[in-house]
Fold this protein.
Amino acid sequence: MAAVPQRSPLRYPGGKTWLVPHIREWLRGGCRLLAEPFAGGAIVSLTAVMDGLAERAVMVEIDRDVAAFWRAALDHGDELIERLLAFDVSRENVERIERTPPATVVDHGFRTLVLNRTRRGGVLAPGASLTKHGENGNGVGSRWYPDTLATRLREIVAHRDRLAFFEGDGVGMLEALAQQPGARLFVDPPYTAAGGKRAGSRLYAHSEVSHRRIFEALAGGTADFLLTYDHSDEVLALAREHDFNVAAVEMKNGHHARIDELVITRGRLFN
Ligand SMILES: C[S@@+](CC[C@H](N)C(=O)[O-])C[C@H]1O[C@@H](n2cnc3c(N)ncnc32)[C@H](O)[C@@H]1O
């Protein structure tokens, strides 16, 4: 399996790095537009554009803090990089940033980046706590790698003409783009149904979406899509009802337990 470079500066609960080899296979041959209506760390959009698998990508995210990060990265990337390289990651400085209401989009985007990289598990949802001991006992800054993050941001700046970001509802965007020929949709919604393993409501500030609306929009459209979910009976029933193809992909979660993630497509993806 080819190496999977980390492209996103955000650590994302439910992040999809494990899926990248399958995404490359899905997008083989390239496409004009890749859409990611629940962007989060936007790993798939970044990979598709940077690996030359999509001419352009459009990302949508409803969370204000995450949205501010993407707006800052795409519209004020150089300033964000300067801020990041100058930051002294002490607990006091992180707590000051957490308390101070951001005045500009760069302040806000930088605040998101700092909290994302210093809170336990990268969780931005209200109530998440700061890392206490951090990796190897290095404290609050144990996941703050300024040079690496600056490199990732520079790559984003270099590709920004091909990356579009919108703050808003991904379901509405999905309904519109599902009708567009030549578009491909990577759909990774927050998942909260009973029995699902990813506790969406704890991880994301926005975790309520209509899963049925997502399935109906995809079934009624012509665009190719790849939809991922935690393994659950509700999702399997929706996939069956809409006659979609389901593959269970085994992955390890943060605690090295094996869990199944569902990869749902219109036709057969894996043999
Ligand atoms: C499972 S995560 C996506 C993770 C992403 N694939 C990655 O690899 O980083 C789901 C994301 O959808 C966002 N979200 C929730 N409801 C949304 C909505 N109605 N429209 C757009 N984004 C939404 C959440 O804030 C969260 O960032």
Notes: The first strand starts at residue 31 and ends at 36. Residues 70-158 form one domain. The longest helix spans residues 105-118.
